[in-house]
């Protein structure tokens, strides 16, 4: 007959620790991102950040060596690809310049003010998630620099993710490839809207509700979501869409931002509240979660002004 | 002596977590990195007394939980299980040294697979990840390779020449 006394002591400790772990999981899930778990995470991140700075500096030569070693093999093909990209960008630049002139003329004709650029805060990626399953990056700017919760983060390619946790000196960014992230997007070419969902790694899933929508390979998907400024490039359609039993059109899309090798990023000083009530005439009614213009609040030293710039989003909707 | 071992083990776990989030963010062959904290748990659980090894697994998992986005306690549960598994088999492994590499590979695969299943149960959608197999197999492979350095290092740090008659002798 089984008795508790039959269990040896290490097994008893093991069972006790399992129960404690499950209790912690339950407690953390019930708090849903706030409470003791969140406080402990912020505290741990604050304590851990100086160590990460030291370790990152100390191991930089080693990392540089291995990086340059891996770059050596792809140097020739990268060079060729970049030349093609430069030629393409020069062509686009010429087209954009002529379009800007035309837009200015039309705006003047209609009496519409041009869209204002968004303030942004430059930051460097300090660390990545501690496991392969973590779709997060830790950046070296925090609340003291003007970074706030839910702010979008971009690189030179497009949207990377949004800020999900902030301490005074660092912030944690959840990448758009996280399976829990869903983003409303618009196909830039046709204006059709859909939902883009992360799958941890690799291409994301795009679902369009209009089953007759025309989706072609290479179509650019831009944000059409209240949480992000409209018109930020998110992904490019990877393959032609197929209809899923008549309810939606489903395909895959590759993120345009370089998610695997992010180094420097920009945090856009934009919150969901601004998107919601951006049309109000009285700006004083805006919530005070973010200092106007991304300027720092009291006591935040001299760093923030030097890193806060104005970003005009290419292709952002008026 | 016990305090010195405790402090050195704790420092090494924290350093492993720091290396994992910084250096291995840049050194990622085939877009994957070793599960260094787990490897440290395996390496030290081979030598520590049973209860200390289990507490090490729990503590290291808790540190990883605090630095990740997963629910608090999830990695703690996985690492505690890994430590218990090592405790159960460590003496059999010592008998045949050539089994250590495959053993580390197996424990890492099992731990990451356990995390994937538990993560999905607790709403992390880990199993929905299209690169799941790669995220389990490559870190396990790297852990097996790094075991050649980390395991002797752990033995050296603990000054361990274990003298136990049973796997659960304290």
Give a verbal description of the structure.
The complex is a heterodimer of chains A (318) and B (170). Chain A is of the alpha+beta class and 318 residues long. Chain A folds into two domains: 8-58, no CATH class; 117-318, Rod shape-determining protein MreC, domain 1 (Thrombin, subunit H), CATH 2.40.10. Chain A has helices spanning 9-31, 35-58, 60-110, 272-277, 303-307; strands spanning 118-128, 136-139, 152-154, 159-166, 171-175, 182-187, 193-197, 204-208, 220-223, 233-237, 242-244, 248-255, 264-268, 308-311. The model of chain A is unreliable at 275-307 and 314-318 (pLDDT under 50). Chain B is mainly alpha-helical and 170 residues long. Helices cover 72% and strands 0% of the residues of chain B. Chain B is globular and about 40 Å long. In chain B, 52% of the residues are buried. The model of chain B is unreliable at 161-170 (pLDDT under 50). The chains are: A alpha+beta (318), B mainly alpha (170). At the A-B interface, helix 1, helix 2, helix 3 and strand 1 of A face helix 1, helix 2, helix 4, helix 5 and helix 6 of B.
| Helix/strand order of chain A, N-terminal first | HHHEEEEEEEEEEEEEHHE
Please identify which CATH superfamily of the largest domain in chain A we are dealing with. Rod shape-determining protein MreC, domain 1
**Number of helix segments of chain A?**
5
**What integer is the average pLDDT of chain B?**
86
Uncertain runs of chain B are: 161-170
Range of helix content of chain B: over 70%
- Overall geometric form of chain A: globular
Summed up, the helix count of chain B is 7
Order of helices and strands of chain B: HHHHHHH
| Termini Cα gap of chain A | 76 Å
* Count of extended strands of chain A: 14
Q: What value does the average pLDDT of chain A take?
A: 76
